[in-house]
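Annex B.
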Amino acid sequence: MSEWRRLNARMLLVHPIETLVRLLPAVLVVLIARSGSDNDARWELIALPVIVAWGVLRWVTTRYRIIDGQIELQRGLLNKQTTTARLDKVRTVDLTARLHHRILGLAKVEISTGGGQRDRLVLDSLLLDEGRRLRAELLHRADPEVTSMPAPTGTPIDLDELASGVETAPASDEEVLLRLDPSWIRYAPLTTTGLATAAAGLGFLTQGFSRLGDTSELIVERARWVRDLDWWVDAVLVLVLICSLAVSAYVLTFWGFRLTRNRLGSLHTRRGLLTTRETSIDPARIRGIQIDEPLGLRLAGARRLKVVTTGLLKEQGGSDWLCPPAPAAAVTALSREITPDDAAVSGELRAHGPAARRRRVTRAVVPVLVVLALLVVARTVWGWSAALLGIAPALLVTSVALGIDRYRSLGHVVTPRHLVTRHGSLDRQRVVLDRDGIIGWKVEQSFFQRRAAIATLVATTAAGRQHYDVVDVPIEEAYAVLAEVSPELAGQFR
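Putative membrane protein: predicted structure tokens.
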């Protein structure tokens, strides 16, 4: 239907909460300042009705509809804005429900038609079932069972009268590709993401304790107790704390993770403990997959899987996840379900030759040699301890091993439907890119690459990172790959 429809009135409870959370630092500053004031006038209480009035104004002035093959979003009173998006350009639909959304049965719907902030429409807040029906209409317009569902626009619908199972497709027609196994939580501390989250949490706790240290005798006492322990005990305690924080982040992000595919081929993920997130991806927008193998996961025999698709924003953290850190066998099996090309998913790759090996090892060893040279200078000029030079053998062996592993990770292959490239050691990535999704090429050569007769072949695409590199490949091999995948463009590079 083409009638205008408003957001759900329950948003009047959501927006004041979100506004207060955003303004919480300022509110605390005001309260602290007021605590030492003799003025009894509570003028800051005016903020509360202003926030409520602002929420009411947003609800009154925001409306949307689907008409003439496009979705329109209109908002604003004095500065009225109308945003439109063609239905055939919709690439992904995200449903996000924070804890307060879930309590009220609401969800924020983000409709993406491109890779930028301007290429999306945000409807905050809709009833969860209404958001799912809207998603169904936007992504599965050709499905008669979906188009026969009650429309998400037009006259408001009494949800109590609807039949059960009004999600993106009937439940019996959804193929469950993956469910989270709780035992996979053990991989949480083995990724750089988990460690970064843990480090951020640890820093926050440390900063908070340091501020309370002068006023809390209990914290001071516990800090002294930790300081008096042996260094290795402190190291174990820090390791346990970091692992606990990483596991907590994993649970909050991926708990209840489920990946399904309906009969039209659309992929749908659902995840999250406190904040749930549902992402639906149009199969026509998928351009490949990316298999991540950070060093920690590789040592534990695990991987993770992402999708290479158009329409996912970088700000939408985690929207491209198809599988959280999981056993390699599970990730490989899922990769074959998404991309049924065994040679591309798990086949052998072409090595890049001795020139690439020398370059990988050199790039790993030279920084270590520079550091060691600086230590020698510091020892000679400033009298630094000679014990620091005792780490030289370990650093050299580690750097050589890193360079060799980086070379072993290099590789590529061209299959009838895909270009596959792999590189990296500490964070190894294998990208399976649809040949039809490649829209351009770039051949890059640094000064040292030219001398070694190698190059970096860059395949550009509208999806994912917009470019994927075949690193340090022999120059003739780079042109051969280009000619095989895009013969119509090969002549422009000679």
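The first strand starts at residue 5 and ends at 6. The chain has four domains: 5-159, 182-254, 258-350+410-493, 353-408. Further annotation is deferred to the next reporting cycle.
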